[in-house]
Structures are given as structure tokens and as C-alpha cells.
Design a protein that fits this description.
The chain is of the alpha+beta class. Among the domains are: 7-185, no CATH class; 191-305, Glucose Oxidase, domain 1. The chain contains 18 helices and 16 strands. The strands form three sheets. Strands 1, 2, 3, 4, 5, 6 and 7 form a seven-stranded mixed sheet that branches. Strands 8-12-11-10-9-13-14 form a seven-stranded mixed sheet. β13 and β14 (286-290) form a beta hairpin. α1 (2-16) runs antiparallel to α2 and α15 (375-383) packs antiparallel against α17. The longest helix is centred in the last third of the chain and has 17 residues, at 392-408. The chain is globular, with a radius of gyration of 30 Å.
Length: 436
């Protein structure tokens, strides 16, 4: 009966879904979610995904999950179906942990339930390896567990490839563990394209990446180490070899930006530091050149047209000071969200809630204050100062000076002065007058 119900569900899905979706449903019902062992190359190929196929750098790989709670049972994951470990674990109901909870419990804590890794064929070396995310704090004993379980269930020998200094140090403690280091794979290699793409951005050489370094979305970073995490950027260049399976490279692929290893990159690119450049990462080589004015103008034009950049609307034609009782939701573009919301509350008369009387100065006067004291120009200069962007100590000092300039600014006493005096006089004697 159970099998019959399953077949009925599949049949209904095929009837109700379009042709393209039917093919996907068929593929998912015909291929297993995972295998308990990989006994041949063909079994591996049936589950694996390949980066850069048909090149000397092809990287076929699949995910694996070892459940320590179930006597170290291994799942060789159908990676064509599940792109991430958590998708498989959740999709097969091994665990319903998600988000931060799943991340901390299975990547950071030593007493974890799941060992989550990847098996890959290293084409340059013609060797099989297993590895973990570079930020994984997996201890030596669990690395050895993974090696033993894979050794007993995979059709050929598989060596361990650490992806961080910590993982190298931990794995050195595991007796009898066969290892392949990234430096072995990239030996004598001066360039490796991890993600082929073109990028336009400002070169930012970072000798040491720590919490004091500020990074902009329009920057091509030159790093002396492979980072564990980054905000969106325009390109990534590292001076140490990495792997296409790294978390950073997955981000680079998602952002569509170049990500490469270049030996001695910090020295090679120091002449470009702070300059806007066009960087083209190709499979076997790269090119870099300073961006000309036409390219930058086109970039700025595209940036202004981006739909994901939120620009708050404002109505600077409104010069009248308005009481809260005179404002509704539509007043937000002249008086701001907090004021407009208080206006709505005033009209709603919610039981047990009293809005004190008050009035609001419209945006017009703030804009006037900035322009008459040339503070708008000062803000523009500040935001385009690269030292302000990248040096936290310099930025704090700059902001202190900017705050002092605001305090020294003079307020135009002409337009609206009489109305402001009348409004203030009206509310000043009230004990309920609210000022913010």
C-alpha cells in the first residue's frame, strides 16, 4: 500500500507539472539521495558534480555526511541533487536543525553529530582526496574517523587534504593519516584561476585581514591568506593556493567575480594599490590594466540604475512646520517615518495610549542647513576619502571633526523664522511638550 501511494504521488506530479519540471521529477525519483558506499568510478560519477569540466583543472567531487550518532554511518550524497550538506541532512530528516544552530553544532563544536566533508579527484595529481570547509574546527580524532570510514567504503585510496593551517596542525596529530597539502597540488604553480570572470574595481592590498580592516563592495582584494568569510566584493586575489571547493570560491561563483591565486600578488600589484582597474581572470592567464574614464563613467551609470540600491524619497518643497495631528502616513517623505507614524497614532486614538502634542521641522530645513554651511560638499569629500573608508582610527577622528563642523553651522534665520517661533511658543508652556 505504501509503494502504491508513492507511485500515485509521482504520477500526479508528472500530470500536473510542465514538461521541464517532469524531467526534474523523473531525475529525482530515479536517482538515489545517497549511497552507503562507492564501489566504482561509475557510481561516483552518478552522484558527482564537476567544476571546470573538459579542462586540465577539472574537479569532480561529491559531498559526504558521517552520522556519529548512528555508529559513524556514511552517506555519499547525490550532489547533483543536494548542493549543500544542510540541504541533505534536512531533506532526509536526519536533523531539522537550521541556520546558526546547524552551523555551530556541526562546524565549530568538537562534540558534533555530523562530520561534513567533500571527496574530490585532483586532476593535476591524479589523486583522490577528502576535505572540509576551511573554517571547520574539526578535531584530529574526527579527521581520523572520516579517513577510516571512507577507506572502508570507497573504491580506491583517498588522502586527506587540509584547507587551513589549523587543519594541517590537527591532522598532523592523527597517526597513519595520509595527507596531500594544497601546496603539493599547486607546486611550482604561479597562477590558478579558481573562478573565471572579469572584474572592475579598486585594488585594495591587505597584508593582514582582521576586524580593523574595512572592505568595500567595489574593491578587488589582494590578500596574503585565504579568508573564511567576506562581504560582497568586486574580485579576490590571494597569494596562497586555495581550492575551487572553498567557501570563498562558492561565494565568488555566486557573485560572478574573479577569484584567483597569484604567486607574489601583493608585490606584483602594489603599483595598482588604490587604483581602479579592469581585471580579467582567464583559465590559463590573467590581465590587469588601469580603468579609463569611459569605463568608470559607464560603471557609475550602471550603479545608479541598480534596483537593489534603496534611495529614500524626500519632498523638499514642503517648508511648513506641521503638528503631529496634521500628519498622516503620506507625510513620511516630508517629515520622516517616526513623525508620520506618530501622526497616524494621533488619529487612531488607540485605547490607553496618548501621543503628546508636538510638531515637526520638515527635511527642507536640514537640506538648507547642509547647503548653506557647505556640509554637503564636506560629506561627499569624506565618503570618497579612501583612508576614511579603510582606516577605522582615521574615520573616528574624521567623524569627530565633522560633528564639530555641524555644531558650528549657522541656521538661516529668515524663511520660516516667525512660524517656528509661533510653534515653539504654542508648545513650550505645555508640560507634555516632547522634544527629540
Amino acid at each position: 500500500m505504501h509503494l502504491r501511494n508513492q507511485l500515485l504521488v509521482v504520477g500526479l506530479l508528472l500530470i500536473l507539472t510542465p514538461a521541464g519540471a517532469k524531467a526534474r521529477v523523473a531525475a529525482q525519483t530515479e536517482t538515489p539521495r545517497s549511497l552507503a558506499a562507492i564501489r566504482s568510478q561509475s557510481e561516483f560519477d552518478s552522484l558527482a558534480v564537476t567544476y571546470d569540466p573538459d579542462t586540465p583543472y577539472a574537479l569532480p567531487h561529491l559531498l559526504f555526511v558521517i552520522d556519529r550518532k548512528d555508529q559513524n554511518k556514511i552517506y555519499y550524497v547525490n550532489t547533483k541533487r543536494y548542493a549543500f550538506h544542510k540541504d541533505f541532512v534536512n531533506g532526509t530528516y536526519l536533523s531539522l536543525e537550521r541556520g546558526r544552530e546547524f552551523f555551530e553544532n556541526n562546524y565549530l563544536k568538537a562534540n558534533r553529530r555530523f562530520i561534513l566533508g567533500t571527496i574530490a579527484y585532483q586532476t593535476p595529481l591524479k589523486r583522490w582526496t577528502f576535505e572540509f570547509w576551511e573554517g571547520d574546527l574539526i578535531p584530529a580524532d574526527q579527521i581520523k574517523i572520516a579517513a577510516d570510514v571512507i577507506g572502508a567504503s570507497f573504491f580506491t585510496a583517498v588522502a586527506y587534504k587540509p584547507n587551513s593551517i589549523r587543519q594541517e596542525e590537527e591532522s598532523a596529530k592523527a597517526t597513519g593519516l595520509q595527507r596531500i597539502l594544497q601546496s603539493d597540488i599547486a607546486k611550482e604553480q604561479e597562477y590558478q584561476a579558481l573562478n573565471v570572470a572579469k572584474g572592475l574595481g579598486r585594488i585594495h592590498i591587505i597584508p593582514k585581514l582582521d576586524e580593523h580592516v574595512e572592505i568595500g563592495f567595489n574593491e578587488i582584494l589582494v590578500l596574503d591568506e585565504v579568508p573564511v568569510q567576506l562581504p560582497p566584493v568586486a574580485g579576490i586575489i590571494t597569494t596562497k593556493p586555495s581550492t575551487p571547493l572553498s567557501h570563498i570560491n562558492l561565494l565568488a561563483k555566486g557573485w560572478g567575480i574573479p577569484n584567483v591565486y597569484i604567486k607574489n600578488a601583493q608585490e606584483l600589484f602594489k603599483q595598482y594599490n588604490g587604483w581602479w582597474v579592469e581585471f580579467d581572470a582567464r583559465r590559463d592567464t590573467y590581465s590587469i590594466k588601469r580603468a579609463d574614464l569611459n569605463v568608470l563613467a559607464e560603471y557609475q551609470k550602471r550603479l545608479k540604475e541598480r534596483l537593489d540600491v534603496m534611495k529614500p524619497r524626500s519632498d523638499l518643497s514642503v517648508t511648513r512646520l506641521a503638528g503631529l495631528s496634521e500628519q498622516r502616513a503620506a507625510s513620511v517623505i516630508a517629515y520622516g517615518a517616526k513623525s508620520a507614524n506618530l501622526g497616524e497614532l494621533t488619529h487612531a486614538h488607540p485605547p490607553g495610549f496618548v501621543v503628546p502634542p508636538g510638531f515637526t521641522i520638515p527635511f527642507f530645513y536640514y537640506d538648507q542647513f547642509l547647503k548653506e554651511n557647505k556640509l554637503d560638499d564636506a560629506i561627499y569629500t569624506m565618503l570618497n576619502d579612501q583612508k576614511f573608508v579603510h582606516d577605522p582610527a582615521y574615520r573616528r577622528a574624521y567623524l569627530t571633526r565633522m560633528r564639530e563642523n555641524f555644531q558650528k553651522g549657522t541656521v538661516n534665520g529668515g524663511r520660516g523664522r516667525g512660524e517656528r517661533i509661533r510653534r515653539v511658543s504654542r508648545f513650550w508652556d505645555s508640560s507634555n511638550c516632547f522634544v527629540k
